[in-house]
């Protein structure tokens, strides 16, 4: 739940799809003066500041948290530069894969005396509407106050869960970081199938989208397991049972979803170096 105290000041490095999704929520919740570092222009309300390069960051700006939200494969140069500018920050990475070890090594490359405290977070794009879910892991030595500040930021745009081992962030990435894409794919496929059944495209689109929205909202409100909610829709001998006979074949959704999530987690692991 959003907190009433002002959110920590941040240097947000990379304000693309994920950075911007979080920023939208933070601005609504009242944030200490912050800086967004991105090559592209961002109109920010006062007293926040946009910087195109590290050199544009106001000299007297010391953020509570430096958040890195650039692509994991393209982060090295900016991390090295930041290491020369901010010696001992709380470095909150939302990048898939990049391990604490690799982040620290790169951060210190051009400034061996830099000593960042690294926290990894894996949010998702529903953060843009306050409906995100973020998994977090902090390296040993992170203080309770530093963890609280990271948690407050992510909690202002959804819910948070902490994991006990760093490698579990890869599993979080595969389930909830990438997860919205799986649901959007389902929306696309249901819409297409509705059109195949003769529905006008706009009607098929509305039916698919509102079904996913409604089922998600019902899951959120209900104390019942997802399997129980599924059974409530499935009349014996009825229409849903026929559809589920196909989807629940061991080789159909159970296998496909398991393999897809495993592939995403594997890719996160590959990105870790
Ligand atoms: N898109 C998603 O759903 C999620 C993404 N993430 C993570 O968030 C990170 C960013 O992903 P997206 O937002 O999708 O990428 P994106 O490409 O939309 O955003 C990256 C932003 O960083 C800026 N940028 C890159 N290098 C820069 C530099 N050296 N100086 C200034 N600005 C620079 C780009 O201009 C761009 O606006 C990735 O590491 C990804 O793993 C995490 C969870 C979900
Ligand atoms: O696809 C990706 O690599 C990022 C991480 C989770 C969602 N998007």
Automatic annotation (TrEMBL):
Question: Which Gene Ontology cellular-component terms appear in the entry?
Answer: cytoplasm
Q: Name one Pfam family in it.
A: F420_oxidored
Pathway of action: Amino-acid biosynthesis; L-proline biosynthesis; L-proline from L-glutamate 5-semialdehyde: step 1/1
Q: Does the keyword Protein biosynthesis apply?
A: no
Residue ranges annotated for the Pyrroline-5-carboxylate reductase dimerisation domain, each copy included = 166-271
**SUPFAM superfamilies assigned:** 6-phosphogluconate dehydrogenase C-terminal domain-like, NAD(P)-binding Rossmann-fold domains
UniProt catalytic activity:
L-proline + NADP(+) = (S)-1-pyrroline-5-carboxylate + NADPH + 2 H(+); L-proline + NAD(+) = (S)-1-pyrroline-5-carboxylate + NADH + 2 H(+)
Task: Report the GO molecular function annotations.
Answer: pyrroline-5-carboxylate reductase activity
Question: What is this protein for, i.e. what is its function?
Answer: Catalyzes the reduction of 1-pyrroline-5-carboxylate (PCA) to L-proline.
Give the family per the record.
Belongs to the pyrroline-5-carboxylate reductase family.
Q: What is the protein's given name?
A: Pyrroline-5-carboxylate reductase
Q: Which organism is it from?
A: Acetobacter indonesiensis
Gene this protein is translated from: proC
């Amino acid at each position: 739940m959003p907190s009433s105290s002002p959110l920590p000041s941040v240097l947000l490095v990379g304000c693309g799809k994920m950075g911007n999704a979080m920023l939208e929520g933070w601005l609504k919740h009242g944030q200490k003066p912050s800086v967004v570092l991105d090559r592209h222009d961002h109109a920010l309300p006062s007293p926040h500041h946009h910087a195109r390069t590290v050199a544009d960051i106001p000299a007297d700006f010391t953020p509570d948290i430096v958040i890195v939200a650039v692509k994991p494969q393209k982060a090295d140069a900016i991390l090295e530069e930041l290491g020369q500018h901010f010696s001992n920050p709380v470095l909150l990475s939302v990048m898939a894969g990049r391990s604490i070890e690799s982040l620290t090594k790169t951060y210190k490359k051009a400034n061996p005396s830099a000593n960042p405290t690294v926290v990894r977070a894996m949010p998702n794009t529903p953060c843009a509407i306050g409906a995100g879910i973020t998994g977090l892991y902090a390296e040993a030595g992170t203080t309770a106050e530093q963890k609280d500040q990271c948690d407050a930021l992510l909690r202002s745009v959804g819910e948070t869960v902490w994991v006990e081992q760093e490698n579990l962030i890869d599993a979080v990435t595969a389930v909830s970081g990438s997860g919205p894409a799986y649901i959007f794919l389902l929306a696309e496929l249901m819409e297409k199938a509705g059109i195949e059944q003769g529905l006008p495209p706009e009607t098929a689109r509305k039916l698919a989208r509102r079904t996913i929205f409604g089922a998600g909202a019902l899951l959120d409100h209900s104390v019942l397991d997802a399997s129980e909610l599924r059974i409530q829709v499935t009349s014996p001998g009825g229409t849903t049972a026929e559809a589920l006979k196909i989807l629940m074949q061991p080789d159909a959704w159970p296998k496909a979803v398991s393999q897809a999530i495993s592939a995403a987690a594997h890719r996160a692991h590959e990105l870790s170096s």
